[in-house]
Write a structure and sequence with these properties.
Arc Repressor Mutant, subunit A, Tetracycline Repressor, domain 2
Length: 244
């Protein structure tokens, strides 16, 4: 795809496609997500998109400069889906935990797309809203601005890092995924206590725990650390939620 995108006012297609739908950026993104879920990264081509949309592939150029431009839109859509329906409780820790779990869940719902998009910075509406929301929670809670930014950075990178890691596991073919999980029982659980005493002592726990994502626990550890740092914040450096 090349830089042939059409200005916004001229984008709307006047006639329906062969499938009776009017093209839009939203429809193209939704279709791309579906195709990536079915066929992986190779599905992100204008030829496949055109066929799925029932439109000439060149019609995609009216909305996106390139496949990378479309990928950025997909990344922003996933961020938007994570925010959909979220409401603040006024409890900064509960709010951040809910946001983190929503981010993780949104990417797990589209593991193939997560592998392509979790590491991208979009600068678009949904991402901008998420950055504003998270920083607002932290500053209103009383974190000094430098600390709020550092915690924001750690929080988002942790969320997206686990999202990508767990998405990679979900995207594995079923036999490979089963084989990976089986290693804990077939190999680790059989290690001799004389040579690997710590693994042997915890083998049962390892076998059970490694079957689920480590993200919720890691998130709680991060929030524990943030809460401890908030208690020691310098009063004169706090955000808008506390008197300076």
């Amino acid at each position: 795809m090349t830089d042939r995108v059409v200005p916004e006012p001229q984008r709307r297609r006047r006639r329906p496609t062969k499938q009776g739908v009017v093209l839009s950026a939203e429809l193209i993104v939704d279709t791309a997500l579906r195709l990536i879920g079915q066929h992986g990264a190779d599905a992100l081509t204008v030829r496949r998109l055109g066929a799925a949309l029932g439109a000439d592939p060149s019609a995609v150029y009216r909305y996106f400069h390139s496949t990378d431009d479309l990928l950025i839109a997909i990344a922003d859509e996933l961020i938007g889906r994570a925010q959909h329906g979220w409401q603040s409780t006024g409890d900064w820790r509960a709010d951040l935990r809910a946001i983190g779990l929503r981010i993780h869940s949104a990417y797990q719902a589209h593991p193939q797309a997560a592998l392509l998009a979790a590491h991208r910075t979009t600068g678009r509406a949904h991402e901008t809203a998420a950055v504003e929301t998270i920083l607002g929670i932290l500053r209103t809670a009383g974190f000094p601005d430098p600390e709020a930014v550092r915690i924001y950075h750690a929080f988002v990178d942790q969320s997206l890092g686990f999202a990508a890691l767990d998405a990679a596991a979900l995207a594995l073919p079923a036999p490979a995924a089963a084989a990976d999980l089986g290693v804990w029982q077939a190999s680790y659980a059989r290690l001799d206590a004389t040579t690997h005493p710590h693994i042997a002592a915890t083998a049962g726990l390892l076998t059970r725990d490694m079957r689920r994502s480590g993200y919720p626990y890691a998130l709680d550890l991060l929030l524990d650390a943030a809460e401890a740092r908030l208690r020691t914040a310098e009063p004169g450096q706090t955000g808008p939620g506390r008197d300076g």
